[in-house]
Amino acid sequence: MEEPLKNPPPYAIASVDNALRAAQMLQFEGPMTVTEVAQRLGVANSTAHRLLAMLVYRDFAAQGPDRAYRVGPVLELAADSQSTVSRLRAAALPHLRRLVDLLDESANLTVRTGDSVRFIASVESSQALRVGSREGMVFPAHRTTAGLLLLADLTAEELDALYSAERYEDRAHQRPDMTELRADLARVARNGFAVNQGRSERGLVAIGVPVHGPDATLVAGLSISMPSIRYDKTRLPHLVATLKNAAAALERCLATD
């Protein structure tokens, strides 16, 4: 039995959500100022300052002599990991915005860690009915568009090790059906893109393509997402072509970074 689909809680608390998002940004991108956090969250500087002060109090963040905030003892990660994600996100944002301009659907960049994926950048569509920002959110890799793209790059041995019964011993209900997953990944590898219709969230369709680094290693998945009511299958070739153009442009930026 699969784990429940990830839907927002019925009584979401905005301040808690913003504090968690701020902690994620510091964890995966490195030091940020109050103004930078406020801009990313879409809140006033005073609100961002209060959120960061609480994170400092609980050791999720720390403030340096330069007044910038960075991860505290609870969330400390290697500086290399932070800088890699930060550079990838910074390079991708202009291309995500361009995708939104061209297609008017929300755009995302996603990376994989083990059997999970994290949305490291997200730009929302301007349409009233749209898929909201997924930035900072974590999903099982096999349930997402980018996750399928990133898993399809693994060898059969790597895939078996990642989803071994031993690793899922205490959460067997979360382990995907490996026969189905292999078939899905073979199709993704053959097509060069992935389509997700309600796999991660009900009422959502996402389409994605791979992004490679300078050494040709697969580093991320670039995708757009939209309400399923607006998805027109006849537009799929155009959507995929637009995504591939954006991915190629991003790859050129990464190669010169």
> What fold name stands as the CATH topology of the largest domain?
Beta-Lactamase
Find the CATH superfamily of the largest domain.
Answer: GAF domain
Task: Give the ordered list of helices and strands.
Answer: HHHEEHEEEHHHEEEH
CATH architecture call of the largest domain: 2-Layer Sandwich
Unreliably modeled segments: none
The domain count comes to: 2
Q: What Rg, in angstroms, do the CA atoms define?
A: 19 Å
What level of helicity do the residues show? 40-55%
Ends apart, CA distance between termini? 44 Å
What about the largest sheet?
A: 6 strands, antiparallel
The shape, in one word, is globular
Total number of strands? 8
- How would you write the strand order of the largest sheet? 5-4-3-8-7-6
The averaged pLDDT comes out at 89
Can you identify the CATH class of the largest domain? Alpha Beta
- List the total number of helices: 8
What percentage of the residues does DSSP assign to strands (E)? 15-25%
Q: From the helix content, strand content and strand pairing, which structural class follows? A: alpha+beta
Oligomer: single chain
